[in-house]
Predict the 3D structure of the following.
Amino acid sequence: MRVFYTSPWVPVEWIAAHGMEPRGVWMDIDLKIPHGPSSAGVCAFANSIIEFSRANPADAVIFTTHCDQLRRGFDLAVESQPNLQNLFLFNLPATIGTEASRKVLRNEIQRLGQFLLRLGGHAPRDLETIVPRYNAARQFLLKWISSASSKAGAEAITRFLDNASVPTKQPSMASPPGAIPVALVGGPVPQSEWDIFDTIENAGGWVALNGTENGERALEPVGEFHDIGIDWMIDSYATRCVDIFQRPNRRFYEWLKKESTVRRIKAILLWSHVNCDLWRAEVQSLKEAFHLPVLSVETNETRADAARARTRIEAFMESLQ
Amino acid sequence: MITRRITFDQWDARYKALKADGLHEPWYGGPLRRHVTCGGDLRLPHLLYDDSAASLRLWNFLLTENERLHKARADGCKIIGTMKDLGTVPVAAYSLDNVRAFYPDGAWWTPCLMECGDGLLAQAEALGIDASFCPVRAMLAAFINGEHFPRPDLLVCSTGAVCDDFSSIAQRLEHLGFPIEWWEMPRRREPDGGETPCPLPGGWIAPQSQVDCARSELERIGKKLGDVAGQTLDDQKLSEGIRQANHVRRLMEKLRCQAYSQGTLPALEMHIVEMLAIHFCSDREETVAVLEDLLAESELRLKQGVHAVSLDAVRVFWVNPVADIRSMNLLEEWGGRICGSDYMFSHALDLIPENLPPWEALAQMALADPMVGPSWQRADRIIVDCQQSGAEAVIMSRIPGASHCSSEGAVICNRVKEKLKIPVIELEIPPVCDAMMPALSSRIQALLETARARRKR
């Protein structure tokens, strides 16, 4: 059975260990960002997930609590989804390193296991082979994308999240000659929105660091492989998670500082969906923390208002030259 | 008989008359007008007021909160800024001696009271938090400009199952150099099979594991509070704090019961009364005194058969606090009256269990927060409250930019309509709603007319 998950911080190894097929939502062709006015204030991505769960009642969908929109989106999905037993809300703790956050994570991993059993999964097994396999794929991908174009890198990561696959071909090329290295940070970038990479390249830049939700952060390495079980899973995901929703969110800033220094990033593009408060609130803090030019790009701008977005990005890149 | 509702200008003469009759006021008392002339609360002249001395005391208590906090600081009290949980951490903080806890979130009413003359919203925008966020962003600017409340000795904020806009604003605050002690609030859910259930105040049930999580977090925060205060927040102190909080809640419940069923006090004053529940407006003992005065007034009116609003007015259940308090006046002007409310903190009105270990009791209360659980649970409680109060209509006011309003509004409105078959509307009320008056009046009046028409069936 396909089990779609909506955050890279849902332990996919645990889903696979129950004999289910973990699938990230970012690649799925049914996932479309609804463009146009979001007058109701609902985030377009959360709205898409609700629609996706309605349209695919035979699949399981794991919502997460990492944002208010998805958390409450689950409530909306429950109200209208005929197949309630296929929906699950995974409570991702926001705090870091506390006893409570570990307790929450433990409970959720156990509950997720029960949910998967109810769906017909088997008792967890083969974690000791599944975990290293996922880890090896993450490490491979981190290396692979360093030599790949930004769009190919985004695709490779998203395909990995979708079906645990890794590219079989050598990457074609990394940066276009003379292009300005920028970091793209922000929320989920589904396949349908990957034009953003072309737009940036056509404007004279390239995404040297993909810090979006389904970008390189999702490849953060896991810990040592010993006693792989629930405790290992808790430790691994509690330390791997690097996201803006965490409180405090300094781990994201530290990650970005480290990676942007290594890659000599010249500017930051912040990608967010309309009505995504979590990311939009960080624009000013990013400017202050990195002393780099920051451009905020909202999803509506890349499709319905593509020309305007292109002009903004072009002007932004021009100002960096 | 209906009591006289008076304008701001009429309060001058009324105040003189009350003084002539021997009105005794606490030190923060005085004529209402000074809050406009000295405090810049320009909204006050546009409101209609209950004319009682008890209501005057309530207004003076509310409008002097920052002044009282500064005085408390000068008197050596520790100031705790508690954010987002709306009613939980203050119970613990006030269990300690010489500690005042307040919600910086409360600054969200400042742009309304000062008709944006405070510039807080514009300043928040300059700090990167624009109008797409909830008006609580005023808090951010108030921290930076230091012109309102004193800088707290400790800032505490719940996170996890909270509104994104608030959480983002608080995180921005931390980036600006205000350290925050975050505590995890799990998203409340029903127990799965095999999990130990724990009944919560208010009637919901959560798994004991979630209560344990909240308890361990609150104990951690309690330790921090004690460290700041230089005292130990032990079980005995917290138990006493809970008893005192419950005393406030019992008074509040009596008052709500009389005001909402018999119309003894108007909607505007009652909205403010309910707000006292979350942090006692920075003074727990004085809150008791204010509530006792109001209750005495309410009981007197009951005996005399006097009402603040017509009992024939359409009984409206109101959901969510309003960014512009004038909207409470407008509802009554147009023929409605509040018969019940859910201003987002019903957990701060329910009694905290006194027969449990105190941290366990506080954790249960925290988890009973209507905003941390599923929207349908909040809807179901609203439905029960509507049935008990005989609500003829429901108004769900949206807070501009608040992330929870967009999704939960649909769930709540649909459930209420389906179960109760009464008219329901959603309204967005900005901090100063004057410009939206035609739209507001059309929608509210249409709602009230619909509800009235249903009486004739």
Notes: Chain A has a mean pLDDT of 90. The longest strand of chain A covers residues 180-186.
